[in-house]
Design goal:
Blueprint (H helix, E strand, L loop, with lengths): L2 H14 L3 E5 L11 E6 L2 E6 L12 E5 L1 H12 L5 E2 L6 E8 L10 E9 L7 H16 L6 E7 L16
Parallel strand pairs: 7-8
Antiparallel strand pairs: 1-4, 2-3, 3-4, 5-6, 6-7
Length: 171
């Protein structure tokens, strides 16, 4: 949620040599004028989608942290006059398109990589909220560039245990 935490995340990404990181529960509020945030820290770019400040809790929110190398190939997509971010689907789903260098790949052909970051509702949420989430996820995937390699980072809010079984589990 804070800039300090974002800086800590960047340091962890540097240490692990991460290319891109999908994030959920970012708790970052969005301004009314922008649907996403773009924050630069030490050459890394945080792209986020979240709730407006009027929302009650602000626990939603997804993001993608791009390393300097990933940021460079993310900008290349925009230079090609193609969409490089999908951030208009609410606070639970966003995506970016990266265009990897052809000179660094065995195929010698540039390749698009489509990265989706998503944050599923918990089992306590309504069916309508789940439907909205799946609709947003489907909408993001429908906007994937043709032939792009797709990577989905998702917080599924999975839970296990006896409390999650039906009442007739002992029958």
């Amino acid at each position: 949620k804070t800039d300090t935490r974002l800086t800590e995340l960047v340091h962890a990404a540097q240490w692990r040599k991460a290319f891109a990181i999908c994030l959920s529960e970012t708790w970052r509020e969005q301004s009314r004028s922008r649907k996403s945030s773009l924050i630069q820290v030490h050459g890394y770019i945080f792209l986020g989608a979240g709730q407006e400040p009027t929302s009650n809790r602000g626990s939603n929110g997804v993001g993608i942290l791009l390393s300097p190398d990933a940021a460079r190939v993310w900008h290349r997509v925009a230079e090609q006059k193609r969409p490089n971010i999908i951030n208009d689907l609410g606070a639970r789903v966003m995506a970016v398109t990266l265009n990897l260098d052809s000179d660094k790949l065995a195929t010698r052909k540039a390749v698009d990589v489509f990265i989706v970051s998503s944050y599923a509702p918990t089992s306590a949420h309504s069916e309508a909220e789940w439907e909205a989430y799946y609709d947003a996820l489907s909408a993001a995937l429908a906007r994937r560039p043709p032939n792009a390699i797709t990577i989905i980072g998702v917080d599924t809010n999975a839970s296990i245990g006896r409390d999650n079984l039906s009442d007739n589990h002992n029958e």
